[in-house]
Design brief:
Largest sheet: 2 strands, antiparallel
Distance between the termini: 13 Å
Number of strands: 2
Order of helices and strands: HHHHHHEEH
Oligomer: single chain
Shape: globular
Structural class: mainly alpha
Radius of gyration: 18 Å
Amino acid sequence: MSIHTLKKAFIANIVLALLEAFAVAWMMSGQSKGVLSGSGLRVLKYFTIDSNIYLGVASFLNAMELYMVIKGEKPEISPLAYLLKLSGTAAVTVTMLVTVFFLEPTLGKHFGYLALFSYSNFFLHLLNPLVAIFVWIRFEKNRVLSIRHTLLSVVPTLLYAVYYLIEVLRHTENGGIMPGYDWYGFFALGLKSAVVVLPLFLLFVYLVCFVLYRLGRDRES
C-alpha cells in the first residue's frame, strides 16, 4: 500500500477504536437504557460487549503497526495484526447479523421493534459493525492471510459459545433453563436443541469469517 493509503488506514482504525471505546464506556456507565443493557463489569456476559471490546483492541493494535510502517520503523504490518482485525471484524459482524435477523424478530415483539438499536446499542449492534466492515474491505491489505486463518478467526466466538453453554448448563432446573440465563434465547426450544443450534451457529460464524476474508482478497486481486 502507498503511504497515502496507509495514512487513511491508520486514521480509519483510530476512529474505529474510539467509536468502540465510546460505545462500551457508555454501556458500562449504566446510562444506556434498553434491551440487553447493563452497567459495570456485568455487561461482559454479553457477546455484544466482548466482541466490540475485542475489535477496539484489534483496531488500536493495527493502528499502532500502521504508524510504525508509515514512520519506516518496520517494513509491513504483521500477519497477527491482520488476523486479529479479521477476527474482530467477524465477531462484530456476527453480533450485528444475529441482532438483525434473530434477536430483533424474537425480542422486538416483546420490547418494541428497534429497541435493540437504542442508546449505546445503536453503536454496538449496528454502526460500529458497519464501520468495521467498511474499514476492513476498503483499507486492510490481507494478502498475507491464507484460508487457514479463517479457521483461527473463529476461535474467539467459539470460546464465547463454550462460555454461554456452560452458563446455561450450570443453571438448569428440572430439565429446564432458569430464567435469565439463556439471555439470547438460543435454546428457547429446550436444552436438547443445543446439538443443532451450536453446530449451525459455528458454521454461520465460519461463513462470516470466510466472506470477509474473500472480500478483502478480491479487493486486492
